[in-house]
Amino acid sequence: MEPRQITGVYGEVSGLPVPVSAHVREEQLQEPRIYTVTAEWSQSELVRCSRLRYLQEFRLISESNTHKSIRTVLPPGPCVSVSGELLSGFSPIRGLRAVIRETSGHQLLEIWNCHGLRKCLNLTALNKHGRVYDDAQFGCLSWSACENKLLYVAERSKNASAETQDGGHAWRKDRSLYCEDWGEALTNRSEPAICVVDLEIGAASVLEGVPPDVSPGQALWAPGSQAVFFIGWYHEPFRLGLKFCSNRRSALFKIDLCGHCERLSGENLSVSNPRLSPDGSTLIYLQGAVFGPHNQCLSLQQLDLESGETSTLLDVVSRPQAGEFAGMYEALPSCCWSADSQRVMFSSACRNWKGLFLVDRRSKIVTSLSDNLLDSSSQLYGSWKLLTVQRDLMVVCCSSPNTPPTLRVGFVPRAGEAVSWQTLQEPLMTFDFSWKVLDVTLPSDEENANYPGLDFGAVLVKPSRPLGETRTPLVVFIHGGPHSQFPAEWNSTTAGLAKLGFAVLMVNYRGSTGFGQHSILSLIGQIGSQDVKDVQRAVLTALERDPNLDPDRLAAIGGSHGGFLACHLLGQYPESYRVCAARNPVINAATLLGTSDIVDWRYISAGFHYSYDQIPTAEALAAMLQKSPIAHAAKIKAPVLLMLGGRDRRVSPHQGMELYKALKSRGSPVRLLWFPEDGHSLSRVDTQVDCFLNTALWLHQHL
């Protein structure tokens, strides 16, 4: 197993394109109906160590007597690079394309039509605000109904406000003043502002009137385009990390262009993802609790804009029964409504799968639209992710552990009908390794007394032909969060390891999303014990059900909380595991307390209440230490590979350093990789190549 071979394998599996968004246009012809699907793809490119993005168009011809079935899918058009674009969006009527682009240190707003570039504004030169937000948390680019205005979010200009004070001397006094931000992956986000561009006069302005104690984002026009809906996150008394956290206090607001602002949702809640119905009558949004689990099962609320009344369309699912809808855990796509404004489509975790669902507003009944949940034996695709629904045409990204992402389309079905799915483009390749879902039942002594009767699962991926060996080494791959999920979808790390001859077990321990709110709550106060036992139980289950797996060659890998669990397994089951690779792991929850951007989760995960004015106690610190891998470090025998991001705001890299020194002092084999420019997710392309190469070599060496 040579480095060149490993890098080649990773280049093959990570270089496959992934669709990230889509837009649907319908040509205004009587017959036949022609739809154009514009898909945006992302692709990792190892030569330049960059992530490329491109657009591709697909044209569909529907049956002449109905627009509910597709007759022909024409060959796709050429791929057009859109690398360098920060945000883009199509106008609702004329199909104009707005683009915010970064070039030579300036941010430009471009408007394109079928004849080329129609208008270009230099937003940086206008000097009305700071940098435009292009993240999924705050960012947006929304066209008004008249197509003369655009809405986006940018950093409020500090210089503009300072110049009004004492000729700028106040700015000089405060230029070293600490400025809070929104934490991991949002380090340049501090004071967002809602901005409006008037395309007719070429002017940009900041919408004033947002309450001073909230940070606005996810803005969209209200009907008539004279007001704006937005989500406001409360930032007093101080900001907590937002990424991967659906439990931050926030509210839905409406502000008109004169600056009059009102709150539309309840108090002390967490809300996100406002989506307006096509007829302009109803606004839906996701809602959850504040604090508690960092990610949780959410309810779907609907606000009647005429009466002002809010009701629950989908409630939190505490404990789903087998084969039932398991709750909402993920963001809504920007377009998720049926054309008649009566049905909402969305994707969500469902046990070890990711499914596609429809909820009818009249009956509040949820229907599964994806084959993997309608028929468990139909396992071509284990994951269905909705990209958009426009003109009743759904565009979905489908994948499985051995099938890379592909685009499929289908029309929103009538009641009682099934969707007729069409594949727009077959995957570039499929891989000859197998996969299956394992359901794991617990013995009575591992039950949670407060939440008995829960189960969990895992996804086992195996090379079809082990490389000249009778038994296959097993890599136990553990997700972070902890409240996230490993669905049966394409994962380049898993695929690369399987191509190199390893079996991979991706474990969804209790506390993972997709198993109901009770499963999530069961982990609170039980980290370091319940989750560790769950992973070990999943390993024993896999070994029992598959005699071709080698119990004497087990490895544990994972990142963040997954790294926390991998290191725990080495300390609590030192005779079972031969090697470990951990990315930005939590090692000592007590010493992490003062350095993490989500200090609330450090208390809550250990079973303690959190408030902003919390002062650490000896009891809390002792409990955090006892639940941490560092408490078992002296028992670790297996070699450990640590991969740390120097700019990690979620889990300080000094966590990994703490284990490194503990193992080094005892003469235990340990290797540390340091990525000074990367953060918690270790998401840079060059970092990912280095991590996979070193992980594969480390596993091969010690297994």
UniProtKB/TrEMBL annotation:
Reaction(s) this enzyme catalyzes, per UniProt: Cleavage of an N-acetyl or N-formyl amino acid from the N-terminus of a polypeptide
This protein's name: Acylamino-acid-releasing enzyme
GO biological process, one term: proteolysis
Organism: Pundamilia nyererei
Similarity comment: Belongs to the peptidase S9C family.
GO CC annotation terms, alphabetical: cytoplasm
Subcellular location, record wording: Cytoplasm
Domain Peptidase S9 prolyl oligopeptidase catalytic: 494-703
Transmembrane segments annotated in the record for this chain: none
Domain Acylamino-acid-releasing enzyme N-terminal: 37-430
InterPro entries recorded: 6-blade_b-propeller_TolB-like (IPR011042), AARE_N (IPR045550), AB_hydrolase_fold (IPR029058), Peptidase_S9_cat (IPR001375)
Subunit (UniProt): Homotetramer.
PANTHER family recorded: ACYLAMINO-ACID-RELEASING ENZYME, SERINE PEPTIDASE S9 FAMILY MEMBER
UniProt-listed Gene3D superfamilies: alpha/beta hydrolase, TolB, C-terminal domain
Protein EC: 3.4.19.1
